[in-house]
Amino acid sequence: MGVVEEIKCPHCGAPIAFEPGEILATCKYCGFTVVIETGQTFTYEHSLLLNKYDQTQIEDSIRSWMREGFLKPSDLARKAKISEKQLIYLPFWVVSAEAKSTYKGVFERITPAVTKEGTIEKDYEWLVLARKTSQFPTRDYEVPLEGKIAYDFRRIEGFAQVFNSEIEKAEAEEQAKAEIENNHRFLAQQDVDKIIEIKTEIKIDETVYLHAPVWFVKYDYKGKTFQLILDGAEGAVIKGDIPPKGFGIL
Ligand SMILES: [Zn+2]
């Protein structure tokens, strides 16, 4: 955590705290979002996904994840002690884009090898985490975007934290484009063994600023600490550390 600074909310006058490196800040008293550098109103769409779990209910999701699947130790749900449960509304940019790639490559799985052409056309709601530091498995996170509403600060729980954006919209769009292009290159490589050329055109329709509820959980099992990340909208585990079977047995 860096030094906390403050800016005055242009809407309600309350102080809005922010940290160095943050670009957008949201007022916790009125939900207004401001561009820190200019003090101007943030004029794009700002959405929110609602969290459906309180600190007790989220434990049920955690325990049932611990019980399911045969990769986990059979006493995990019983013996694990949850030591930390933190709800954080993480900022994302959701980039809606249409992408089309045409490629030419060599198909070497038959003899003689042949040259092959193909097209990949896809629509995306590409997610970019608006934080620079955090290690978050964005590609594993299937955001239930159908549930999003206009940002409403009254729906944010008192015990939750809301993180501000450290990445500008234009930067997020560039990142989304690069990642989509990589994804298409990966897809083309499923079709041909060697790519001779690939051209990708990406049209961005809309980019929405979104806060999504994510639970960061720590649990102790046989003297060691493990981490879990859960989606607060549907209670699904986004990523979880699993102690190896037989862990703790000497
Ligand atoms: Zn305000």
Mean pLDDT: 93
CA radius of gyration is 22 Å
How many angstroms separate the termini? 39 Å
**Helicity range:** 10-25%
Number of strand elements? 13
Strand content: 35-45%
Overall shape: it is flat
Computed structural class: alpha+beta
Largest sheet: 8 strands, mixed
Low-pLDDT residue spans: none
Annotation field: number of helices: 3
Order of helices and strands: EEEEEEHHEEEEHEEE
Give a brief rundown of this model.
This protein is α+β, with helices and mostly antiparallel strands.
Topology, pairings included?
Blueprint: E1 5-8, E2 15-18, E3 24-26, E4 33-35, E5 40-41, E6 46-48, H1 57-67, H2 76-79, E7 81-107, E8 114-129, E9 149-150, E10 161-162, H3 169-191, E11 194-221, E12 224-231, E13 237-240
Parallel strand pairs: 6-11, 7-10
Antiparallel strand pairs: 1-2, 3-4, 4-5, 6-9, 7-8, 7-11, 11-12, 12-13
The chain binds zinc ion.
Overview of this protein structure:
The chain has 250 residues and is of the alpha+beta class. 15% of the residues lie in helices and 42% in strands. It contains 3 helices and 13 strands; from the N terminus they run ββββββααββββαβββ. Strands 6, 7, 8, 9, 10, 11, 12 and 13 form an 8-stranded mixed sheet that branches. Strands 3-4-5 form a 3-stranded antiparallel sheet, with no helix packed on it. Strands 1-2 form a two-stranded antiparallel ribbon. A hairpin with a 6-residue loop joins strand 3 and strand 4 (33-35). The longest helix is centred in the last third of the chain and has 23 residues, at 169-191. The protein is flat, with a radius of gyration of 22 Å. It starts with a strand and ends in a 10-residue tail after the last strand. Zinc ion binds at residues 9, 11-12, 14, 27, 29-30, 32. Zinc ion (ZN) binds next to loops.
